[in-house]
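anyone seen this seq b4? input:
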Amino acid sequence: MFHARPQLVQAKLKKLRPTQITVGLAEVALKSNHWRSLGRKMRKEVLESHWFPSVLGPDGRHYIVDHHHFGLALLAHDVEDVWLTVLKDLSMIDPAKFWTVMDHHQWVHPYDSHGTRCDYDALPSQLSQLQDDPYRSLAGEVRRAGGYAKDVVPFSEFLWADFFRDRISQKAIQEDFEKNVDKAVKLAHSAQAGYLPGWSGKLSGV
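predicted toks r here
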């Protein structure tokens, strides 16, 4: 039986185009520390087995649709080349319609650090220009603490970030991150969060 293989290409990391505006820099730091702990052989194995999902755009550039945090961590360690899997070739599409198609496939998340939707031209042109959203860092830490399960829904962590954004102040996060992770885990298990991807709480009376 024939099994289709993903199209793999090698690309310069610093030339990849992001499809979101923000990351959680605390999460980038965790990935950076993990990379620092690896030996040369393991680093090589990780790079060869880790494929950044991407879309080929009308400008001939590759737009990555996930793993922005890992990419930014690798940049901090001067990694130059990475492997991509090409989900779709949209190089033939009119540039004016490119982002409409990307949005249709849920391959772009043009929201700033306040959770406000922006025009597509606000998207950074390279990974090093990604902005920090502390609520995205909080959402990542809450997932690791068992607050919710990892989900395949695109940009699901940002949905959780927006949930916490309405319930925990940024000042509180900055003053005592760990304390507010505990608070956020309790919120994540509440019925209020029942609509979010990966929710693992319990409805009252069940």
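The longest strand covers residues 81-89. The chain has a mean pLDDT of 93. kinda curious what u guys think
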